[in-house]
Write a structure and sequence with these properties.
The protein has 370 residues and is an alpha+beta fold. It has helices spanning 36-52, 65-79, 83-86, 139-142, 145-170, 202-207, 259-264, 310-315, 321-324, 332-343, 353-356; strands at residues 27-29, 55-59, 101-103, 108-111, 116-117, 120-126, 191-197, 211-216, 222-226, 233-236, 243-245, 252-257, 274-277, 288-294, 348-349, 359-361, 364-365. The protein is built from 11 helices and 17 strands.
């Protein structure tokens, strides 16, 4: 086996010293997953977390911190490339919803009066290395693709498969119900993301209300977010509607539920509303680098409610908004690209009401939150 490519060390930013209103999130311990009793306990734990908060932490997921650090180092090296080099990897059809590759900053107008735009850069990597999608990469990514694939596969087997198993148990379905529609080697729009939020000056932050990305929901099943010590993520409590900061926890993943999970459970599990704000004052001088994984069912899965679930039947969650309106129920692929096209709309002022409440498919109207 060849030696790992040298990426240099990765040093995390020091955590904020400010006292912030942190969200009270629970931690799901996957060390208990190995026994039937442990899985039953965790399933109850998971569904309660999903229903009450929508965000939770996961620990003991059997991926080394060294492997995580190397992925952050890869992201850092990618963003150190000159802009003209990164722009070579913008996907064709970005405006039509294509998203794998480099998405440059500045597509959204934050302050029309000053011309201030977003400073969010994204590099998405389609993680199924089976030929379904032709994906060109810069050398720093290409040279490390085997390691990236190993990392992506381990996220699938060590985190997503257990979570989907626990969700099935909680809904009184066969344990493999959700894993069967989230197989790594079947075509889906799963992807790994390196994401960079470049800093603003205090004056610029004030001019946009300290709000970097407005409240929104993710479009897939689960989103996995690796520990990021620059505090900026906030979630909206689904019960009280209050906004709370998400505290970085050592050796954990932060996980949230997304749109497709809401469709499949007819709203029993809600897609979690979250936003990104300016960091506290002692962290506003640094950029914020993120490492994320977005999970989605297979492309051909039709997003109907899971009517086989005794729990959903008892609780009356048997039809989602598409089914209730008797409109065509989209496949995962149809919904993914409709929402991605909406997300990638260029040169739209952040407060444009037509954009913020756009109907992206018959039966589904988007919503942007404060």
């Amino acid at each position: 086996m060849s030696a790992p490519v040298s990426l240099g060390s990765y040093t995390y930013v020091e955590e904020t010293k400010e006292e912030l209103p942190w969200a009270d999130l629970v931690t799901l311990d996957l060390a208990k997953f190995s026994t039937p009793e442990g899985r039953k306990e965790l399933a109850s734990f998971l569904i309660k977390a999903l229903r009450e908060k929508g965000f939770f932490y996961v620990k003991n997921f059997n991926i080394s911190q060294e492997a995580v650090n190397r992925q952050f180092a890869l992201g850092r090296q990618f963003y150190e490339l000159p802009l003209e080099e990164k722009l070579k990897y913008v996907p064709e059809g970005l405006d039509q919803g294509q998203f794998n590759g480099y998405v440059p900053a500045g597509r959204r107008v934050y302050n029309p009066e000053t011309g201030l735009r977003d400073r969010v850069e994204i590099y998405n990597i389609y993680i199924e290395f089976n030929g379904d999608f032709k994906h060109n990469h810069p050398k720093i990514i290409q040279d490390n693709l085997p390691e990236i694939e190993t990392f992506a596969r381990s996220l699938h087997s060590e985190v997503l498969d257990p979570l989907h198993t626990l969700l099935a148990i909680a809904l009184e379905l066969p344990e493999d119900y959700f894993t069967n529609i989230h197989k790594y080697d079947v075509k889906s729009e799963d992807h790994l993301r390196y994401m960079k939020y470049s800093k603003y000056t205090p004056e610029e932050n004030a001019s946009i209300g300290n709000l970097w990305v407005r409240g929104h929901t993710d479009l897939g099943s689960f989103t996995l977010l690796f520990r990021q010590p620059v505090a900026a993520l906030q979630i909206r409590d689904p019960i009280t509607q209050e906004w709370w900061w998400v505290k970085p926890q050592d050796a954990t993943l932060t996980v949230n539920a997304c749109d497709m999970l809401s469709f499949l459970t007819a709203g029993y599990v809600k897609s979690t509303i979250h936003r990104v704000v300016a960091p506290p004052k002692d962290q506003q001088h640094v950029d914020r680098l993120g490492l994320l994984y977005f999970s989605r069912p297979h492309n051909d899965v039709v997003l109907k409610a899971v009517k086989e679930s005794p729990v959903l039947q008892r609780e009356g969650f048997t039809e989602n908004q598409f089914e209730r309106s008797e409109l065509s129920v989209p496949t995962v692929e149809e919904f993914t690209f409709a929402k991605q096209k909406w997300q990638r709309t260029k040169d739209i002022p952040r407060d444009d009401p037509k954009y913020n409440t756009a109907t992206i498919l018959p039966g589904f109207t988007e919503q942007v939150y404060a």
